Records
---
Amino acid sequence: RLAPSAALVASVSQGAQQQELYDTRALQKLDSAHYMHPFTDHQELAAKGARVMVRGEGIYLWDSEGKKILDGMSGLWCVNVGYGRTSISEAVYRQMETLPFYNSFFNTTNVPAVRLAALLVELSPPQFNHVFFTGSGSEGNDTNLRMVRRYWELMGCPERQTIISRHNAYHGSTVAGSSLGGMGGMHAQGGLPVPGIVHIGQPNYVEAGRGMTEDQFGLAAAGWLEAKILELGADKVAAFIGEPVQGAGGVIIPPATYWPEIQRICDQYGVLLIADEVICGFGRLGAWFGSELMGIRPDLITFAKGVTSGYVPLGGVLVGDRVADVLIEKGGDFNHGFTYSGHPVACAAALENIRILLDERLVEQVAQSTGPYLKERFASLADHPLVGYADSCGFVAGLNLVRKKGAVVHDCEAFKPEQGVGMICRGYMFGNGMIMRAVGDRMIIAPPLVMTKAQIDEMIGKIRFCLDATLADLQ
Ligand code: PLP
């Protein structure tokens, strides 16, 4: 172990030069020998070999075999402005040459962080005048947990500690993030959730709304929050957290009545409202923030992903006046922060990314033009024999694969989970140059916001082709 082998040095320098030709097998072998991936079964990975991504341009990726892939998931819900934006790499390069790093602890700051904070305040709803930066969305939600508890201590209500979240929510992978989230698979590993976090049902009409209209169900699902607050005692509840549209849980789009009723309940009981906009922010739903679309006034907004389009890691919390004023006026030191809070390079990337979103009017485009077009084209997939229902909001969409269609969504007959139909379909997508994610038998997309109408047509064509292949496979 004194020196790396010549072959390893050669493969590393090949990566550094970004050559077009890669030895896929050798990379896969090194990958499975040494790289522990997030959310991955490593025995399966070793058997199949990882797909090695090497390049991106616009909405397309290329793998190490030279295969072109349409990225229907924007990387991981984040590459909002698409791949290959040289102006972002140039902004990053310039910042690295000028000041690659300095921290924001102990009364120091840096120029990109100041400018970005001011710009985010400008873009966000009026109750926001402060920003706390983190390195990721998970750290943003950890920050939320600490901030809301500190807020209630300073308000003289230290017993208001409990945060209410929802089953099947995703709020990150740190201990607080995964506890705030409601993913059973995550809670089953390592004694989660930590105390002081409880979960109510998600507003999933298809799963739980039988016998009700969507509007009736929205009110009923919001009522679960009120019931939980009354069960715990309002004087014990610090905050409610939710994604405007649940992303990783399977693109669960709530009925229109849901969020306004949640807001009413939070107001009535004085409970803080946290909108986790790690996915929904920065144009994903056709608004700068999904909260605006849902008609709510959150006290805190978590952001990450789209703030830099994933080019460099950055996350944070928009801190509303209700919380910020108390922390600032009464709080003294808030003993919380990260080495990379307000990282100048990440903030420079975010500034350029937001300039692109503004200059190219991408948020308006999703709201007024490509979003409605995607809605119409995606809905047309519902005529496919495998599709029970298909819905979308801005640039997120999902469809459910069903064994038998029904007259109403609740009458569709599901496949047996052990058939793994979603994974079969995902396999056909991958094999045919299309990235679409499977959450059980729900197939979801969140394409880059730069996707054109012609590219939407291309994507819908690929999805239909792969649905046909899946159907043929099952027969
Ligand atoms: N919150 C939501 C809604 C997310 O979708 C994610 C990531 O997918 C996170 C938080 C965690 O963000 P990160 O992976 O940057 O920690």
---
Amino acid sequence: MLSKKVSQITPSYTIGISTKVKALKQEGKTIVDLSIGEPDFFIPEKATERGVEAFHTNQTKYDLVPGLITLREAIVEKLKSENGVLYTPSDIVVSSGAKHAITNSLLAILDQGDEVILPVPYWTSYPEMIKICGGVPVLLQTNKTDQFKMTLESLKAHHTTKTKMLFINNPSNPTGAVYTKEELIPIVNYCIDNGIYILSDEIYERICYTDSFTSIPSISEAAKANTILINGLSKSAAMTGLRIGYTASSPEIAKAIATIQGHLVSHPSLASQWAGVGALTESKTEIDQMVAVYKSRREALIKQLNTMKGIEYITPDGAFYLYLNIGSIKEHVAFEGAFSLKVCDDLLNDYNLAVVPGIAFGTDDYIRLSYATELSLVQEGLKRIETYLQSKLNA
Ligand code: PMP
């Protein structure tokens, strides 16, 4: 009965974990849940005001498919002032979250069997999204020594006649790695010269702890023409449940994306879009404050990690995750299937701690935890991980 496509798709690991966490909570257990990439802040005050006002002023009907013009103008202004790249509202399509912006883009670009190069570790939904849209994910292994960033050589090695697209997630979920402009330029130029579109997922760009972040379309006019930029308000403005993401692209691609979106969902909730206007135009200070909190948590956690034995980590330059290498205990753990799944099951069942297995991101020796949650809880989570690791190493 079900399509062949469905049988090729792996259910979301993160959703699987939240389901287990909910079941354990119902049994009365208190779980430290560091599995979800969801900011623990309220949305900015002005976002709330604008959203509520939309309900009171009858802004609850159908509107333009590519998104409210006021919101698209606010996005254009943001991209100009914060990312140094010039778009017009007709280059922007507002969608129901960045996830939707990505699938819209894939539907607009991919034909059946087209290859999409995906650096590993990747955000867990990418391979499945590519498959759903008829593409073939081609995994490009990166190295810990390169901070898990792809190099031009590795890109060339994965380029075939079927390559249509390259995914870049900068800053990265799960590693927090941020590419420098110097690292991006050769990769971007190679893609331009070889007709490979870039999908640049910059959803964590506002949560960045270095000055080295460069938005790919800002590199050159050719880079802008060759890139679909993905961004949104789920992470930067803590608006996960309001579902506002967007693409910025050439007007031709934007038109194609809008045609697809017009048939599938029309446009995201209008009240959410008005909340988005509030977040983009009147909430800079509040967003800066959230970023400052992530930054201070990150510093405290790095200090703690430096005291822990049996663990290697990648210093995150952006986003709000710790990607921890727990390979040191591999030979001390009995497991069938994925090692990181077993570790996460142990942590959940024996230590009441929920984190995400590295296998969800294509690297099985790792676990990911989110610090978009109260610092004391994350610190407690790290303590439990340390106790678990020691129990294995000393067994
Ligand atoms: N891209 C990346 C890299 C993400 O981590 C996420 C959310 N975890 C998304 C896209 C999806 O964001 P949204 O909630 O806006 O759909």
